[in-house]
Amino acid sequence: MTESSSTQPQVNKNKAHRKDKPWDTDDIDHVVDAFNPEDNKGGAFTEESSFATLFPKYREKYLREVWPAVTKALEAHGVACTLDLVHGSMAVRTTRKTYDPYIILKARDMVKLMARGVAVNQAVKILNDDIACDIIKIGSLVRNKERYVKRRQRIIGPDGSTLKAIELLTDCYVLVQGSTVSVMGPYKSLKEVRRIVLDCMKNIHPIYRIKELMIRRELAKDPKLATESWDRFLPQFRKRHLKTSEKTAKKNEKLGQKREARKEKKKKKVYTPFPPAQQPSKIDLQLESGEYFLKASEKAAKEEAKRKQKQAEVTKQRQAERAEAFVAPAETAAPTVEEKQKQKRKRGAAEMEVEMDGEEKDDATSEKKKRKKEKKEKKTALASS
């Protein structure tokens, strides 16, 4: 008995009742053959099956408008539906015309998707045999509301680019609405989308999974790699974010290093076996100054004089601060008549000098021009002779 118990692997308490799913592996292809009315050998169902789901208040107007289209789509499969606006619910049930036993579950999924904000023309596709749906609940995965909103937005991406990439790579329709993510598509792809969404809410960016899916798609095109393992081609991403315990350990390590650095900086004192000299007490200081032998009245008078002196200093300082506000700013005196005349004369003299310099320059340039002209005339005369 003890040997058998020791050989059994220890299972986590939370996962004790979970069993293996041999029908849900990657090598199984979920191909479903179409179910026609002639395939139903038993005839009409003996019992009526029905499902109902609630919808939010803001969906009421839209559902009322498109309900005829919903009724028409379900009637083709022999399923009846009712819209209860009083209780805010949608119900589907089998009828005598229903021939497919699984269609009621498909109709239930269709109603659920419409309640979660999926359009009717998209929700009707769930009635096809090769399409399934998955509604992923993300509301309880993150406690902090701000963090939850940021991570939910990360699934959508800037201008919906991340969501579009997921849809293109998985051939699924994905809708992020409130605290749920509605997914429609093939069975295999639903598992991929669920993995991406849950990892995103655990702070693993969707771009890593998208990159992996792109590589897998390219590898699937090569028939030589069909029997080989693809692990060597797939990127291995390391977790960079630390747990709280790891963060505290790192912080404590840094603090310890700082303390050691401070200790090294401090100079080591020379050890002496003798204790330090005793500090003088208050009475010793009073004995030195002679205050100890004064009477109580003399001591009080001395304290009063000190206090008044301190008060006088403070009042003097405050008065000086207040007086600063009344000090007139330094003004520049207007120039007298004599000063104005002197300035005028200086300006006149400066202008005269400038004019003289200009005339001298003009004379010099005119003389140069005359010389050049004479030289040219001489050259022409010599050339003509």
TrEMBL record:
Region ranges (Disordered): 1-28, 241-285, 298-385
Domain of life per record: Eukaryota
InterPro entries from the UniProt entry: KH_dom (IPR004087), KH_dom_type_1_sf (IPR036612), KRR1-like_KH1 (IPR041174), KRR1-like_KH1_euk (IPR048550), KRR1-like_KH2 (IPR048548), KRR1-like_KH2_euk (IPR048549), rRNA_assembly_KRR1 (IPR024166)
Keyword Secreted included in the entry's annotation: no
Basic residues bias: start-end ranges: 368-378
Function: Required for 40S ribosome biogenesis. Involved in nucleolar processing of pre-18S ribosomal RNA and ribosome assembly. Essential for vegetative growth.
Membership in a protein family: Belongs to the KRR1 family.
Annotated compartments: Nucleus, Nucleolus
Domain K Homology: 130-202
Record note on quaternary structure: Component of the ribosomal small subunit (SSU) processome composed of at least 40 protein subunits and snoRNA U3. Interacts with snoRNA U3. Interacts with MPP10, KRI1 and with ribosomal proteins RPS1A, RPS4A, RPS4B, RPS8A, RPS8B, RPS11A, RPS11B, RPS13, RPS24, RPS25, RPL4A, RPL7B, RPL8, RPL23, RPL25 and RPL28.
Regions of compositional bias (Low complexity) in chain numbering: 325-336
Keyword list, A-Z: Nucleus, Ribonucleoprotein, Ribosome biogenesis, RNA-binding, rRNA processing
GO terms of molecular function: RNA binding
A GO CC term attached to the entry: small-subunit processome
Keyword Ligase listed: no
Ranges of Acidic residues composition bias in the record: 352-362
Name of the molecule in the record: KRR1 small subunit processome component
Compositional bias per record (Polar residues), positions renumbered to this chain: 1-13
GO biological process: rRNA processing
Skewed-composition ranges (Basic and acidic residues): 243-263, 298-324
